[in-house]
Design goal:
The chain is of the alpha+beta class and about 240 residues long. The chain has helices at about 1-25, 60-65, 80-90, 175-210, 210-215, 230-240, and strands at about 40, 45-50, 70-75, 100, 105, 110-115, 140-145, 150-155, 165-170.
Length: about 240
Amino acid sequence: MESQERRLVFRSLLICSAVFIQAQFSCAGDCPADGRTWVTFGAKCYHFVHGEEEAIKSYTFDSAKTICRGFKLLTIHSAEENEFVIKYSPQVWKGNVNVWLGMYYDTDTDTMRWFNDKPVTFTNWEYSPYPSDLPKVETCAALHSISGRWENVSCDEEEENGVICETAQKADPPKRKPNALLSTLVILSVVAVVGVSAGIWFVHQRQNSGSPIFTAFEYHPPFRVPDTDESCLVEAEETDGMP
Ligand SMILES: *[C@@H]1O[C@H](CO)[C@@H](O)[C@H](O)[C@H]1NC(C)=O
């Protein structure tokens, strides 16, 4: 009995905290709530695509773009952002991973451009004494997750690299208040429901087991309780007497 009660209380607490964590998560939901792990740095959210058991997952440029559909492939705009990628990569991948950069060769301007249309200001190309022999239109770029240096690689030829998706954090202050309020309401109603159910359960359990606390309140009528037929009659008479 006691252990059962304790288990119920424990379970209620578990449910409450799960709901609370869930609400917190969506409250802080400046990053997409799509079930994937997004980490923030600056004003952006990043999703490091990882395999099971830290296995390196490599993808072609096209499948990388498919994985990040709705978002962008990694773009780097500062030394700090480059540093963030180097620092966070070991949490997801073991060893060096070449990561696709969301960059393409723009034939109009004869330069590399970011997919997010921001100009390429910061670069971190590795030192290479020879110019790349890749046809320019087939030139993509990849970042070495350990050194942080960038390399020109072929966009095709079944080349496979790691993937980081990025997206801007949603800076939407007016939307956050109702969200927080809603979460609070959800938490409160869940707590209320759990509390009431627990209460009912306790009463029910005590009634069944006839525990001393409840027996104290047991009603012992001083006179004979009328049987079902009589009580119906009494009720009917009372109803008739009403104006
Ligand atoms: C890669 O290509 C870009 C643009 O063509 C060039 O500026 C850069 O130096 C190249 N990097 C390497 C390491 O070859």
